[in-house]
Automatic annotation (TrEMBL):
Annotated SUPFAM superfamilies: RNI-like
The protein's name: Leucine-rich repeat-containing protein 71
Pfam families for this protein: LRR_6
Residue ranges of the region described as Disordered: 19-50, 77-112, 321-473
Membrane-crossing residue ranges in chain numbering: none
Compositionally biased region (Basic and acidic residues): 22-32, 321-334, 342-366, 375-388, 397-417
């Protein structure tokens, strides 16, 4: 019995040791797993998250970028649809068969229905920051077209978020920022973001006074903004000078801005003169508003000179000579010198270059013999064509084509024709061969849309219609330095800016002297339009001068209003009936 008891004791102790070993091993495994998981969590915490790629859905992209920037969910501005005014109900149909039944009397004790002209919200929700958007289709988040931010500060972190999500919004065309506390840095950062938005055309930044006044950064050479509004920004003469320089200089010009609103600011005649200087070489801007500033007669006189005609400065004359020189010898821009024969035959040679006396006699004889051969060749072609009975235009040889192309003499309206065809080009070249010395210089285009394109006839070889050009209706911009000039008292005068069609100078300090200057400018534009009409430069059509210190019975003001009435594109003059009574043509 003792031996059996000892065996049981040994077995029990051995089993106990085995169990203890398993427990220790399990505890060690759990400890190792816990330590490894803790190390993994620490590595995940130290590891930077993967960058977020915007998908073009502004609401989702903006919310995720704000969350990754560390903003708590309660402080992320929500993206909401912009409230719209309810439309007017349609009028009742008088031909309806079943009239509406009479309304039952409403019990006064019952609660009246809420009106539909406004929307109720929670208390103080109106003052919470949000981003209002407009969409083409409310059910499609990728169709955001307009973004409105009003009444809350946009800091550097928010600008970084906009830098990531704005360029991915494909249909975004309008950004409106009102009273958002912009600084010099945040405005420049936003100005660098705008060119990355492919369809952004309208930008409004209002109620954001900035001490440095860096507003010119919005009108850079790479700017795609078409309509820009900078109202209520307390822009002074300093900011207006930068804006004027950004509109145009002697060598540069903004090519996209069509409408500029600078009303309700604080610049005087100095700032107005800077804007006028920026519009001397700009033929793109159509609408300009300078209402509610401090412009007096001095500034109005400057605008009168701009709209009528003005003398070129020394820098502009030098630049004009360079352009004419490059136009006369196109190889000069590529670093190649033209052949001596072209230099001798060119009539647009600068005055500092001497005549072709440096050519040797052999070259002159060679030129005369070549001209005789060319004349014989032309006469032979005329006889052959006359024998066939066909009316043709004598074609010039390649040398004459090059010479006339170097001279640049074309009809004044040739640059403004729509499309280009080979027969039209030949006719123009033939005309310049006859009137090359008297043809006026046309402006060089800012963007040569037809450069590199091959001109084709109206029908291809197979007889089918040739494809139309990509932009047949686009009117090419002009360079005013290459316009026709008039020499007066030793100065070169060119026609003024006729591209502006809408000018707002209301609520300023313009008196009778400024009014007379604007009247003379408008009369000059009308006379010039009658003598030399231009398909693109129509001249001033609307001029706002309300709430200026001008007498209501002013003769100049009445004449100005009468002239502007006829300039209105929607104006229809009244006709007289056979009885002598005036009848309106409207309707």
């Amino acid at each position: 019995m003792s031996e059996a008891g000892d065996a049981k004791g040994v077995f029990a102790s051995a089993a106990k040791k085995v169990k203890m070993g398993k427990r220790v091993e399990k505890a060690l495994k759990e400890k190792a797993a816990a330590s490894s998981s803790q190390e993994a969590t620490e590595e995940d915490a130290n590891k930077a998250p993967e960058p977020y790629t915007c998908i073009g859905h502004f609401d989702a992209d903006f919310t995720e970028l704000c969350r990754r920037a560390g903003l708590p969910p309660t402080e992320i501005p929500p993206v909401v649809l912009r409230a719209k005014r309810p439309g007017t109900p349609p009028p009742p149909d008088p031909k309806a068969k079943d009239p509406t039944p009479p309304e039952e009397p409403v019990d006064v004790a019952e609660e009246e229905p809420k009106p539909k002209t406004y929307v109720t919200k929670e208390k103080y929700s109106y003052f919470k920051p949000n981003i209002q958007v407009e969409m083409e289709h409310e059910e499609k988040p990728a169709t955001v077209t307009e973004i409105y931010i009003r009444g809350w500060k946009i800091d550097d972190m928010m600008v970084d978020i906009f830098r990531n999500c704005f360029p991915t919004i494909e249909k975004l065309n309008t950004i409106n920022l009102w009273n958002v506390g912009l600084t010099d840095k945040t405005l420049r950062d936003l100005a660098a973001i705008f060119p990355q938005c492919p369809n952004l055309k309208n930008v409004s930044i209002e109620g954001n006074p900035i001490a440095e006044e860096p507003w010119a950064c919005l009108i850079g050479d790479d700017s795609l903004i078409v309509n820009l509004s900078l109202r209520h920004n307390e822009i002074t003469d300093r900011g207006a000078s930068g804006i004027g320089a950004a509109l145009s200089t002697v060598t540069t010009c903004n090519k996209n801005l069509i409408s500029l609103n600078l009303s309700h600011n604080k610049f005087s005649d100095v700032g107005a003169e800077a804007v006028v200087k920026g519009l001397r070489m700009n033929r793109v801007l159509l609408c300009l508003s300078l209402a509610s500033n401090k412009i007096t007669d001095k500034g109005a006189v400057k605008f009168g000179e701009l709209l009528s005609r003005f003398p070129l400065t020394h820098e502009e004359v030098v630049e004009r000579r360079k352009l004419l020189s490059d136009k006369g010898s196109p190889d000069r821009g590529t670093g190649k010198s033209p052949p001596p024969s072209r230099r001798a035959e060119s009539k647009d040679r600068p005055g500092s270059v001497r005549s072709g006396s440096h050519l040797d006699k052999g070259d002159k004889k060679r030129d005369k013999s070549s001209k005789k051969k060319d004349n014989k060749h032309e006469k032979k072609n005329e006889k052959e064509d006359a024998g066939k009975g066909n009316k043709t235009v004598v074609m010039m040889d390649s040398k004459k084509d090059k010479d006339e192309g170097a001279k640049g003499g074309t009809k004044k309206d040739d640059k403004w024709k729509k499309g280009s065809h080979s027969m039209g080009a030949k006719a123009v070249m033939a005309d310049t061969s006859r009137h090359g010395s008297r043809a006026s210089l046309v402006a060089e285009t800012v963007n040569k849309t037809t450069k590199g394109k091959k001109t084709t006839s109206s029908k291809d070889k197979k007889g089918g219609a040739a494809p139309e050009s990509e932009s047949p209706d686009m009117v090419e911009a002009i360079n005013p330095l290459l316009d026709s000039v008039e020499s007066i008292d030793g100065q070169l005068w060119i026609p003024g800016n006729r591209s502006i069609i809408n000018l707002n100078l209301s609520r300023n300090e313009i008196g009778e002297a400024g009014l007379k200057s604007l009247l003379l400018a408008l009369q000059y534009q009308i006379t010039l339009a009658n003598l030399a009409p231009h398909p693109a430069l129509k001249g001033l059509m609307r001029l706002s001068l309300g709430r200026n210190p001008i007498r209501a019975d002013s003769e100049a003001y009445q004449k100005l209003q009468d002239l502007l009435l006829t300039r209105d594109p929607f104006y229809k003059p009244q006709a007289k009936s056979p009885d002598g009574e005036v009848q309106s043509l409207v309707g």
